[in-house]
Amino acid sequence: MTIQKVIEIIERKSSIPEEGESFDTISEAFDIAVEALKEVEQYQKLGTVEELKKDKAIADELSAIEAAQCYAAVSEWKKYQEIGTVEECREAREKQREKKIVVTHHNNNSVRDAGKALCPNCKKDIHAKGTIAHCFYCGQKLNWSK
Q1: Cβ atoms within 10 A of the Cβ of 50, count?
Q2: Which of 119, 116, 123 is nearest to 133 (CA)?
Q3: What is the pTM of this model?
Q4: Numbers of helices and strands, H then E, in the chain
Q5: In this structure, are strands 116-118 and 102-105 parallel, antiparallel, or unpaired?
Q6: Would you say 91 and 109 are in contact if contact means Cβ atoms under 8 Å apart?
Q7: Are 6 and 29 in contact (CB under 8 A)?
Q8: Which residues pair with 125 in a beta bridge?
Q9: Which long-range contacts (C-beta less than 8 Å, at least 24 apart) are formed by 126-129?
Q10: pLDDT tens track for 30-60
């Protein structure tokens, strides 16, 4: 199907086939239009033509060494971005630090025999009685000592 035919079908604002067309033809036209819109959306994410021209002008002014250094810096930045935000890293680090469980009921005054133990981070019932090192729910490292 040609692009012109797709445009004609979409501009009719009707999903009823005309003579010589089928519902499959209409469906195919809509599928093609949707794919074209998705492609336009991808191009819009790259930026406007003006923004791309400005970026190209800056890139043209860089020497080969400067360009390599910029590429290395951007690559390094992307690695850090994949790790997560500073806040996410702090939160993950904090979960690695052992925290004492919250005991709500003692059996024989022993924390290891706690009837009910809560995670100090998410406050959910752990149900493990000293047998796990990390909370099932949030990953917090647990300290079962008295």
Answers
A1: 8
A2: 119
A3: 0.40
A4: 5, 4
A5: antiparallel
A6: no
A7: yes
A8: 118
A9: 126/101
A10: 888 888 888 888 877 777 888 888 888 887 8
